[in-house]
């Protein structure tokens, strides 16, 4: 299947909220919740997308002609590309009836592994969501990263035990999901975590811990002090707080503040290999991409995931070559121009 064919098929399978837009910029679904949209005016996802488009590339082809390597190492594992599938949950609520969370992860995890990357998995109010996700990761030799929502302490610790048994590469918490309206007043309860509470959670599991949902230098410092090995600069796809800046806007200052003390990932509106290049030039070690993996999988299953990863990887290679970077380490801030 071609990418165009996958997108056409996806439009038959998602809905009614997601439109499987060819350009996924947050406009068509801006305030669709349930759905992939956002609270309030729904401008968060649009800001994320636009913040990457405001950055341009500095072309330089007076360089040695040699092969381009997109390989990277994260947590001791080598990946073909600095790309992760972002955690997505409540599939039937937000994206249509074709796949449950469990069915989605059962396809996504091995498809990403076969494509040379790894998937983060989502969490849900139903306990079987994490049970199935960690079992799928275990079946795939631990090649995945479960993401726990900021539930109450006892619920988190129970889920961390399941994650230990899965032998996952790492564990994440999307702490920004505390702002999702459909998680409020639910059982188990979810909400913000203090630095001390977060540190206690991180200390309870002997795996690299990733804190997702960092948008300020202050937040990054708190996550680092709590023991996080990595952070994800993220505003939950622009879904949880109207008025947030785009992730591309805050990434450079966060990288400058934390230095090389933690790995930094970023998500939100990243839609092409060129966008991935921009993220790395701004200081990210890797990116997370969410909605495009949903439409790729809904349109083509595991083949759709492979086509998407290959497309992004080829775009990244081409951008690197045209800007004079032949490995990820050679990508630098002077290869982009910020308006």
Automatic annotation (TrEMBL):
<dbReference type="Pfam" id="PF01070">
    <property type="entry name" value="FMN_dh"/>
</dbReference>
<comment type="similarity">
    <text>Belongs to the FMN-dependent alpha-hydroxy acid dehydrogenase family.</text>
</comment>
<dbReference type="InterPro" id="IPR012133">
    <property type="entry name" value="Alpha-hydoxy_acid_DH_FMN"/>
</dbReference>
<dbReference type="InterPro" id="IPR013785">
    <property type="entry name" value="Aldolase_TIM"/>
</dbReference>
<keyword id="KW-0285">Flavoprotein</keyword>
<protein>
    <recommendedName>
        <fullName>L-lactate oxidase</fullName>
    </recommendedName>
</protein>
<keyword id="KW-0560">Oxidoreductase</keyword>
<feature type="domain" description="FMN hydroxy acid dehydrogenase">
    <location>
        <begin position="37"/>
        <end position="339"/>
    </location>
</feature>
<dbReference type="InterPro" id="IPR037396">
    <property type="entry name" value="FMN_HAD"/>
</dbReference>
<keyword id="KW-0288">FMN</keyword>
<dbReference type="InterPro" id="IPR000262">
    <property type="entry name" value="FMN-dep_DH"/>
</dbReference>
